[in-house]
Specification:
The chain is α/β, with parallel strands linked by helices. The chain contains 13 helices and eight strands. The two termini are about 30 Å apart.
Length: about 240
């Protein structure tokens, strides 16, 4: 298979190490990965702010960059969900539909497509997993606690393959961190309080690292950790799965 690597703009600008880890991890798993150099923002910030009608050029560029691949993989649940739900094209709707059906967030690609059962990774730390709202309720990377159904977690499934890693149990395993894209700007006080509550849960239960499939959530919590001068760090799940510590 050939995979097109989609690196969201904020990952590229602020957390390039997560993108590099994603590339290296896929290559270790014998996946042929191509990074289209002309890719840019998928248009999610505009759409979330009520300007989806202005995102067509973003859609057209995404189609141009990624239509030819067998799969498209990205280290960002929120951006993947945006493409799955909102990529359309008046002139190329069949192609857009094909892309919506073959784009995957990294964790779901590893578990659902590659069906990874073994990893050559080591991360000797206590780790708390943050399930982002987009990943949880949009991509179904884990079971929602409000449902009376059997629990599962694709991030936990992969992290359990990492040598010497200890997963901590949180009091509220799927609570929102409060980032919410432009919500953190429009409702700053509410967003910060939600973020503090989420961070406190990890600290209370002994996490040394907080990980997630969404760097936007991690960025929000990282700011709170830094302001509180905490030693707890955030790390994208790709960096753990690719770790050789």
């Amino acid at each position: 298979m050939t995979v097109g690597l989609f690196v969201p703009c904020y990952v590229n600008q602020l957390y390039p190490s997560a993108a590099i880890a994603t590339l290296e991890l896929l290559q270790q798993l014998n996946v042929d990965v191509v990074y289209p150099l002309k890719q840019t923002c998928c248009g999610q910030p505009m759409a979330n702010s009520g300007f989806e009608h202005l995102t067509q050029k973003c859609n057209d560029l995404f189609i141009q960059n990624f239509a030819q691949f067998d799969y498209i993989v990205a280290p960002s649940a929120s951006c993947v969900l945006h493409i799955k739900d909102h990529l359309h094209s008046p002139e190329q709707e069949e192609t857009a539909t094909g892309i919506r059906n073959k784009i995957y967030e990294l964790v779901e690609f590893l578990t659902d497509v590659l069906k990874v059962e073994k990893l050559n990774a080591r991360f000797p730390h206590k780790v708390g997993v943050h399930h982002s709202c987009h990943g949880l309720r949009g991509l179904y990377l884990a079971q929602m606690s409000e449902l009376n159904a059997a629990p599962f977690s694709k991030p936990h499934q992969l992290l359990n393959l990492v040598q010497d890693l200890e997963l901590v149990t949180l009091d509220r395993g799927d609570e929102c961190c409060g980032f919410g894209g432009t919500f953190c700007i429009a409702e700053e006080a509410v967003s910060v309080k939600m973020g503090k509550d989420r961070v406190t849960d990890h600290l209370k239960n002994g996490a040394e690292y907080i990980t997630s499939s969404d760097l936007s959530c991690l960025m929000h919590m990282e700011g709170i950790l830094h302001r509180n001068k905490s030693n707890v760090k955030v790390v994208h799940i790709a960096e753990i799965l690719n770790s050789r510590i």
